[in-house]
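in:
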């Protein structure tokens, strides 16, 4: 199952052309990455090209800034397409909490939105900042810890695995056993699970002896481990697998959508993807079919009103009626 979970992310100079600005303010403008002939740019939610396809790679906008790759290096643009941080990084993460992770000579650090390195490049891996802290991996022993926005090590790197903070808690692992800590590094839920997900909608899935259930912030089991697999709660529902079929439960553990599907996503914007006989369709929270995908579609969840669809390795977008609003072949 493709789950929406908070996960670890290890991520001079020619002017760039962009489309003419269509209005005086871009603060509320949502832009979506698109590709034409191996060059990337951005469209708006009507399918209109706002930033010309000119980059070798891009990442989604976050805090009104997007990482873009040009001439083998990463930099950052704003929503008018202006390069505001020149390409000079081997890799780059999206901005979060005002900072972005950048890679230089195989070491990760952080810059601010002026492009200044504010946390030195000294880590083997980093996540983006979440709830004021970033997860890091040390070079010496590959242990996991957390730093604050000043670069201070606020939770010592003593874990074999750790993930970003979600809902004030971060999952950690010691010798393959999972638990949770708070932002002071206190163990809130003792490592006792064979696997665990991040908290979402107040609950986290856990695995105990090959069965999956859910715990609350105190580590109390609130939905008994009984499933072959389970996913994150999103919009009040979570995917669960019974007898190798996926369905959905509510936070009381009641089955809301019967397990009939061979695969599923989490809910996003009132819809989710489920698979029947290798064909995908979007259903709503009542389990009613809303969009039936053609056999050659490789679809993704909706985000900000649109969903990415891959057809023969080409990226398309649809709206929530199933209408294609971006066709890369027509745009060439």
């Amino acid at each position: 199952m493709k789950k929406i979970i908070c996960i670890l992310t290890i991520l001079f100079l020619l002017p760039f052309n962009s489309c003419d600005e269509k209005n005086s303010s871009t603060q509320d403008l949502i832009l979506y990455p698109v590709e034409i002939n191996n060059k990337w740019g951005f469209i708006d939610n009507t399918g209109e090209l706002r930033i010309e396809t000119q980059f070798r790679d891009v990442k989604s906008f976050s805090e009104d800034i997007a990482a873009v790759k040009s001439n083998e290096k990463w930099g950052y643009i704003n929503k008018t397409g202006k390069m505001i941080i020149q390409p000079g990084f081997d890799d780059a993460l999206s901005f979060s909490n005002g900072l972005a992770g950048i890679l230089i000579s195989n070491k990760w650090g952080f810059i601010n939105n002026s492009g200044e390195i504010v946390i030195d490049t000294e880590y083997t891996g980093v996540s983006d900042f979440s709830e004021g802290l970033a997860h890091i991996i040390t070079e010496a022993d590959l242990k996991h810890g957390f730093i604050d926005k000043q670069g201070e090590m606020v939770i010592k790197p003593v874990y074999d695995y750790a993930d970003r903070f979600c809902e004030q808690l971060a999952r950690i692992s010691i010798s393959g056993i999972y638990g949770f800590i708070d932002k002071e590094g206190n163990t809130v839920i003792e490592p006792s699970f064979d696997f665990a997900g991040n908290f979402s909608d107040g609950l986290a899935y856990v695995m105990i002896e090959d069965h999956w259930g859910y715990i609350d912030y105190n580590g109390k089991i609130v939905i008994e481990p009984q499933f072959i697999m389970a996913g994150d709660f999103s919009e009040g529902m979570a995917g669960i697998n019974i007898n190798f079929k996926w369905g959905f439960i509510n936070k009381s553990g009641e089955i809301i959508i019967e397990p009939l599907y061979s695969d599923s996503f989490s809910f996003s914007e009132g819809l989710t993807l489920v698979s029947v006989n290798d064909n995908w369709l979007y259903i709503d929270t009542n389990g009613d079919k809303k969009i039936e995908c053609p056999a050659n579609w490789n679809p993704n969840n909706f985000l900000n009103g649109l969903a990415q669809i891959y057809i023969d390795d080409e990226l398309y977008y649809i709206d929530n009626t199933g209408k294609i609003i971006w066709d890369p072949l027509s745009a060439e």
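note: Residues 85 and 115 are 5 Å apart (CA to CA).
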